[in-house]
Write a structure and sequence with these properties.
The chain is an alpha+beta fold. The chain has helices spanning 10-19, 28-35, 43-54, 107-130, 144-168; strands spanning 60-61, 65-66, 72-73, 77-79, 84-89, 134-139. The chain contains five helices and six strands. The N and C termini lie far apart (62 Å).
Length: 169
């Protein structure tokens, strides 16, 4: 297999470490573990999508939404016709009040990074709301049945209220 150099290749990481943009990994194992984190198709996200699909729901996954204010968001699951955006948030990356914890190593890097994630989540929620979208946020630790119930409740409520609106016209 031929390796193609990319901006995320080892050389780029070493240059960024040297510039102090982010900390050097504490070990090769930790580095490997962090590189294995996925932006999309995480286990909780795939489980939720599969359960929704089994129930007959159809949706788009990882669809970029360009909102009127110039804000771009990428919900994990999107019901476009019903304007419902679903995010499956990881406890570490989105600072879960139940399971999130502040890292003790390289706090100078992680504390602002995690704060920015939370701020970005709030900004996305606000922008989606102003654009007429309903937002559902699910924590990765939530039981699958609870997550499915939360999503279907919003999707069905939006569908019921839009059907009522059409009948009243």
């Amino acid at each position: 297999m031929v390796s193609v150099s990319s901006p995320d290749s080892g050389d780029a990481r070493e240059r960024a470490h040297a510039k102090g943009l982010y900390p050097a990994p504490s070990s090769e194992g930790r580095s490997r573990n962090m590189r294995a984190n996925r932006r999309t198709d995480t286990k909780p996200e795939v489980a939720l999508r599969s359960a929704l699909h089994r129930l007959g729901y159809r949706y788009r996954k990882d669809l970029r939404l360009d909102l009127p204010e110039g804000v771009r968001v990428r919900p994990d699951v999107v019901f476009t016709a019903r304007k419902v955006a679903v995010f499956v948030d990881g406890c570490f990356w989105h600072v879960c009040p139940e399971h999130g914890r502040q890292p003790t190593s390289n706090e100078w890097y992680w504390t602002p990074k995690l704060r920015r994630n939370v701020e970005r989540d709030r900004a996305a929620n606000d922008a989606l709301g102003r654009a007429g979208w309903h937002v559902v946020r699910i924590w990765e630790h939530q039981p699958l049945d609870d997550a499915v119930a939360a999503v279907t409740a919003v999707v069905e409520h939006v569908y019921d209220s839009s059907a009522t609106d059409r009948q009243e016209r």
